[in-house]
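call fold(seq) -> tokens
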Amino acid sequence: MDKRFKTWTYIEGDAPLVHDGPVNNIYAIEGQFMDELELGKSQLMARHPDEAHYLPMSITRIVQYMYTPPVNYTANYLERAPRISIVTPDLYKNFIRVLYNANTSERFHPMRDISLPEVNIPAGKLGPPHLHKPPNHRHILAFFVGRESGYMRTLLFNSWKENDNEIQVYEHLPKNKSYSESMADSRFCLCPSGWEVASPRIVEAIAAGCVPVIISDYYVLPFSVVLDWSKFSVHVPSNKISEIKRILKVVPINRYLEMQKRVRQLQRHFVINRPAKPYDLLNMIFHSIWLRWLNVRLPLLSS
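ret:
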């Protein structure tokens, strides 16, 4: 891929339209990806536009450029991004969409589009902390804390909010608890969809060595072409939320230990490095774009 697949970036004058992007907070992967290309050190950069296979475009900057006054892109555009093909289906044939909201019920196409992991990136950091605690020191069966955003979390709160010692679900973290330490103390980390199907808790769980419990309908998980999520996570659909404790309790200890071991092994695929390193999160995105381009065979820019 490094030798054959090339991208083209350019300097288009003042007020960049299709470059740049947020590099911190929940939707920061887009900006980190664009910034990695802008540095000019990647082997994937073409020397001339005729050599390039694709041109990256920042949805965030497009929305900010087009709307006056500026809109909240997270609420008004990103969760609706899969619907772009409804308005202009002829243009869609020339796009590969890299989306956080990889929702098949909203026209996300797994064979063509790419599911982008959500990572909450604090200022001055590149992702959540990595906490390595052995399985026999994890005394919480399952843990979640977060706002009641979306029907999936409403269902979760109705069944489990602050009413079970083993399934610890909170809307607000108790003052005597640490968020990252609680994840490291847990065997399973609940990752329910919010307003979108994706959740940054999946990457946070993996960083904490905690087996993710994907509570979602219609979600195409990141890098699922090359990663078999059934080997290191548990999926719970909306109609089984009330059965979470039973589902997790019947997981054999040997299977849990194998899943937790695999979570540790694949942590490198969900780590951001700057500059990017082989097999890290940014290179996994590049690889996903390469695979999709092979699938759909988009025309070269020169054509």
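Confidence is low (pLDDT under 50) at residues 71-82, 299-303.
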